[in-house]
Amino acid sequence: MRNIKLIIQYDGSRYSGWQRRPGDERTIQYKLENVISRMLDTNIEIIGAGRTDRGVHAMMQTANFHIPESAVTFTCGEMLEYINAHLPSDIAVISVSEADERFHARFNCISKTYVYRIDNRRVQDVFQSRFRTHIQEKLDVAAMKKAIKYFEGEHDFTSFTSLKSKNKSAVRTIYSAEIDYMEEDSFIDIRFCGNGFLYNMVRIISGTLIEIGLHKREVEGVPGIFSAKERAVAGYTAPPEGLVLEKTEY
User: What's the angle, vertex CA 61, arms to CA 246 and CA 151, rounded to 5?
Assistant: First the structure.
């Protein structure tokens, strides 16, 4: 049985997220599985590195699937050509390769990098509107840069997730957290690299940092949010269009 690795890019604006849902054809996983299953004339299940939410984008989503011996035979190059010819224009597979039979896109991933993108111009750049969240009020980037350092390292992120289950661990490690400010364009990129992320975690952290940038919260209040372990004490969930899965590493 062949194990195939995919590198995928997508504009998530029109989709319900990565994960397939019963009765919902507007997911990235459904679109890919539908095309690949038709190509191979057999039902295929794709495993993704991360389950991006509704409206969230990916520059480098990694996935894999297994091809049974009974399936139609294609080379990786032929699969790349076929898949892209039949996918919508806002989803692209940029790489198809043979993987070790034990490779698993989710469990073997050692780190993911997400970036939350903000357009901080007074008037929104219409060409960035699908990929950057517009915040008209001037943000205090210096304060945000101080606050983001509290998120590096191993922490219990219970306050920064919409996850309802109390039985699953909310402990994650953030290897790096930084903010890039492109002053000329008034663009702000909030970037996190970590070993895993909880449901809505990056968007809630970003919302908290935005509130700090708007002087609605104090930088020094971040440790108290961690210790409270209550979603209600953290900031709002920032809109999905600003979030991009930038990189997956193995």
Answer: 40
Out of 24, 41, 53, 125, the active site residue is: 53
Q: Which two tokens stand for residue 98?
A: 């043979």
In this structure, what token pair is assigned to residue 114?
């997400």
Is the entire prediction scored with pTM above 0.85? yes
Asked about 125 being catalytic, the answer comes back as no
Q: Which two tokens stand for residue 199?
A: 């449901």
Task: Give the residue carrying structure tokens 């057999």.
Answer: 42
Residue that has been written with the tokens 């590493």 in this structure:
249
- How is 67-113 classified by DSSP, letter by letter? E-TTSPP--HHHHHHHHHHHS-TTEEEEEEEEE-TT--TTTT--EEE
**Cα-trace Rg, the chain:** 19
Q: Is the pLDDT of residue 135 over 80?
A: yes
Cβ-based neighbour number of residue 16 at 10 Å: 18
Per residue in 78-109, pLDDT (tens digit) is: 999 999 999 999 999 999 999 999 999 999 99
